[in-house]
């Protein structure tokens, strides 16, 4: 069947269904929705919904901003009580230490217990430390002085960016000093010919993106936590996110970084060059080291040009195998303009509807996919997308769908996918897994676990970056339960290991997953990592109890 | 001016000149050349030229295949005689050692002096060692056994792939044992859903590309040396090349690798996952370590789909500033389909004409640029390219040009750029520099050096990957001269350092550049690299005298 539709600029929401697929009908279906009359009421309603979607009364929940918008303020159990973990023999912070810090950075030392609270607990409210001091340096030299001093005094340090991590890596386990990059938020330079941005580690991802958009560029990464997360934290955890499919990982886009080592020495590898083969690429060791090898203080990053045209399709698929076939088709037909391919199951949709009052814009389906295209020519992109949509409808890969090209509508559709984490946080205690698997096995783990856990779990849901083979598997329950935890772990890790997957695709190991590293890495690799840690941080003061099991284990 | 040309599928060579720019003329100019009559005689002539272009009588010179096609067989001065370098106290290979190797890999031990010759000298014929033994293992276990033995015996080992390196990194300096990956040339797996290829280190890049093309994929890198270079060597040297602009560096596309460490232990990080954040990314340390930290034995690499449409434009520009403005315009107008932006000066063109008898397809210009587009829809791509060409002609950025979309023509145009290295090798002794600089400074170094060296150099030429800010600066002379070398170095490095550039963008440091690392890396970084080397290879047996200055220096 060779239906040919000229799809022009979509301004609103566009629905169609392959059940009635005919070339004439299709054209009509696309055009009917293009009038603004049908669009505005929907827009209004959605805006209203957005305002009352919050369980805690704050309207900025699309930002994962714990400090400004805590989801619920019930006290979280101390990590040291919930988990079997012993405090290592680090020194305790003394008044003399506080005087040193206060002298080094007047006004940048916080010891007030209430003020410290949100910095001691993770965004998911699953782990909590009891640090007595938070430091907010403004410069690399201050960070260097702090670490030199702490290393000498044997004081443990917990580096913290936006505290949006999901594996307990960004908060203290005991009383580690919290070193926040919040005030290190200066843009150092931007070159609009090369697209290279250099900035301090504490710049918030969304702010950087706003800054770049004014100059017709964008950040090469995008996360649901963009409103709070710091670029230094993104780099330290090798954040993935929604644009990885198109612009690749931070291992390719981060061109340089500056880091302060445990002994306070400053490693300046802040090059702004696309290519540099002079010796070993040291910066790579700090990317993804979760603050255990050094504190990232500045970053040089290659930013792509802002696409001239962005389109989003939100589609309903009858089965996971159709989600996969739609992906293969889409890679072939959309090629270089494909910028995201995300999926979520209907259980996720139920959660965002129930807890955040979002509206499902298409007919209920077992699975939904979100396809984003970004390109330099809107007419070309829309033609490609139109051909693709025709094909997937004609072949019954897709049951229903809606399209958007206008910024506000695009954001509304993205919210359905981006705010799942938030909806889960409202559903109860979350057991969170972030798995890489061969795509054809990706959803089997969810189905399997749903059957295994039965009614002991409230929800078992799967969503994620299908284009990258990355599943976010989440289980919720009324509260933390050791027996439920044991029903899930190590079962999930064993399952993943069996298919040579990764037990942490993008979240890192942090505190919660470090004991499971051997499911994804061989013994020799773990030993080598421990050697690197011992070499760079012999006293182990940097983010202790995280990422690697200690050597004796 | 808003000329609108419908450019359809180009089958042949197409010329135009903006001097006569009129919409009507332009359309005519494009169409006139589309008939095949004008094309075939040219094709025939070019084929003939290709056959007799070789200084050494072999027709496979587009492959940088030293072993099969040495360019000239004059004896090269021994590295140990030309350079001030002392042999380190490694053991000498004994008959007992040879017996061990022969027993381990029967038939894989070469000691014949003539057979060893090409493995002892680099492709450029600038450095030469005198190894007495070449080992050709077939498996990782054999490599492991060799290294375990050599480490115990304190025997130095020089890993070698296709021996196409340009900084003397791939041949022995003294009598190091050469360990060639030539027989480790098996493809282990290819997944056509994910596009992930897993293969042994000795696979030749071009062979891998041919294999992938049959399955509608391509390798994410492309080099002039593709006919000889091994993927393991590419990874070990973090090769850049022609597709980096589009598909990014190996730091992003290499998903996993297997390496054998100095003590023979096998590090299996051969994951086939797009995302894996379980601990430090050890593989990155081996990418670009030039065989000094371990021997890469297998690689897992993410391959892009083969583009459905490829177009090539070869353009003449009146000045370097116009080369730069054409680049900026091209990034904006071609966007996501731009896959290469290369430049060469007219001095390069003279060399490929003189030594390889290639034909300049456009009017003589001070500079030439080669723009490649790769996309999923030929009509869209051609429309974008046509709009772009109209614009650069109308604004006089480009003086003359030719287009190709047919595979043979594309290869002929690429040869003009890819075979410059070969033409230089015919011009005399080459002083070779591979520099990263801010693009607006890129050519100033060539002009400056041309003035500085005057008639003491035969040719001073500049070409390279402008899209990546990468200049290949080459100086030729009748033979090696110490005084000429001193007129160039460290001047070139100081010049580069002044603009925060890299003294080796993609070639690595190897033997020839290791003493200049401090021009691009701070002291702290070099010290840390030396610590890594000491940790991973305490006896320093792996590719000694390369990449890093020794600690005492």
UniProtKB/TrEMBL annotation, chains A, B:
One Pfam family matching this protein: FAD-oxidase_C
UniProt keyword Flavoprotein present: yes
Cofactor(s) this protein cannot do without: FAD
Domain FAD-binding PCMH-type: 127-306
Primary enzyme class: oxidoreductase
Top-level taxonomic group: Eukaryota
Keyword annotations: FAD, Flavoprotein, Oxidoreductase
Catalytic reaction(s) noted: (R)-malate + A = oxaloacetate + AH2
EC numbers: 1.1.99.39
InterPro entries documented for this protein: FAD-bd_oxidored_4_C, FAD-bd_PCMH, FAD-bd_PCMH-like_sf, FAD-bd_PCMH_sub1, FAD-bd_PCMH_sub2, FAD-linked_Oxase-like_C, FAD-oxidored/transferase_4, Oxid_FAD_bind_N
Role this protein plays: Catalyzes the oxidation of D-2-hydroxyglutarate (D-2-HG) to alpha-ketoglutarate. Also catalyzes the oxidation of other D-2-hydroxyacids, such as D-malate (D-MAL) and D-lactate (D-LAC). Exhibits high activities towards D-2-HG and D-MAL but a very weak activity towards D-LAC.
Family: Belongs to the FAD-binding oxidoreductase/transferase type 4 family.
Name listed for the protein in its UniProt record: D-2-hydroxyglutarate dehydrogenase, mitochondrial
Organism: Gekko japonicus (Schlegel's Japanese gecko)
């Amino acid at each position: 069947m060779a239906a040919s539709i000229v799809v022009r600029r979509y301004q609103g929401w566009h629905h169609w269904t392959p059940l009635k697929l005919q070339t004439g009908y299709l054209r009509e279906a696309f055009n009917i929705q293009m009038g603004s009359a049908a669009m505005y009421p929907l827009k209004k309603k959605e805006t209203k919904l957005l305002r009352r979607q919050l369980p805690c009364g704050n309207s900025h929940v699309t930002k994962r901003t714990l400090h400004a918008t805590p989801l619920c303020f019930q006290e979280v159990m101390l990590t040291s009580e919930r988990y079997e973990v012993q405090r290592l023999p680090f020194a305790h912070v003394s008044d003399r230490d506080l005087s040193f810090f206060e002298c080094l950075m007047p006004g940048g030392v916080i010891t007030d217990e209430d003020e410290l609270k949100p910095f001691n607990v993770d965004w998911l409210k699953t782990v909590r430390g009891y640090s007595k001091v938070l430091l907010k340096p403004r410069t690399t030299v201050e960070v260097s002085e702090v670490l030199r001093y702490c290393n000498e005094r044997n004081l443990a340090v917990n580096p913290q960016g936006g505290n949006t991590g999901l594996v307990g890596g960004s908060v203290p386990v005991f009383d580690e000093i919290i070193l926040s990059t919040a005030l290190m938020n200066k843009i150092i330079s931007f070159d609009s010919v090369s697209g290279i941005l250099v900035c301090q580690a504490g710049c918030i991802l969304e702010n950087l993106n706003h800054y770049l958009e004014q100059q017709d560029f964008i950040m090469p990464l995008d996360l649901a936590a963009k409103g709070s997360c710091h670029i230094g934290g993104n780099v330290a955890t090798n954040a993935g996110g929604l644009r990885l499919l198109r612009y690749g990982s931070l291992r390719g886009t981060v061109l340089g970084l500056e880091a302060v080592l445990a002994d306070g020495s400053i490693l300046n590898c802040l090059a702004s060059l696309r290519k540099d083969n002079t010796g070993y690429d040291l910066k790579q060791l700090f990317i993804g080291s979760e603050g255990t090898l050094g504190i990232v203080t500045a970053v040089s990053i290659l930013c792509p040009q802002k696409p001239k045209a962005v389109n989003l399709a939100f589609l309903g698929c009858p089965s996971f195998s159709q989600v996969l076939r739609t992906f293969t088709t889409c890679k072939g037909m959309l090629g270089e303009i494909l910028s995201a391919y995300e999926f979520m199951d209907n259980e996720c949709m139920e959660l965002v509807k129930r807890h955040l009052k979002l509206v499902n814009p298409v007919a209920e389906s077992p699975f939904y996919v979100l396809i984003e295209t970004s390109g330099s020519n809107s007419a070309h992109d829309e033609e490609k997308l139109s051909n693709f949509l025709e094909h997937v409808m004609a072949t019954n890969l897709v049951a229903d769908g809606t399209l958007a090209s206008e910024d506000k509508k695009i954001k509304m559709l993205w919210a359905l996918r981006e705010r799942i984490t938030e909806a889960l946080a409202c559903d109860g205690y979350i057991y969170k897994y972030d798995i890489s698997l061969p795509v054809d096995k990706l959803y089997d783990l969810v189905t399997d676990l749903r059957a295994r856990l039965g009614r002991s779990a409230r929800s078992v849901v799967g969503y994620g970056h299908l284009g990258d083979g990355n599943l976010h598997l989440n289980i919720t329950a009324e509260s933390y339960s050791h027996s439920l935890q044991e029903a899930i772990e190590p079962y999930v890790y064993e399952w993943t290991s069996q298919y040579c997957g990764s037990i942490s695709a993008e979240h890192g190991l942090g505190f919660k997953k470090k004991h499971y590293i051997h499911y994804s890495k061989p013994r020799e690799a773990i030993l080598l990592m421990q050697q690197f840690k011992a070499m760079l941080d012999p006293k182990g003061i940097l983010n202790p109890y995280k990422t690697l099991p200690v050597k004796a284990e």
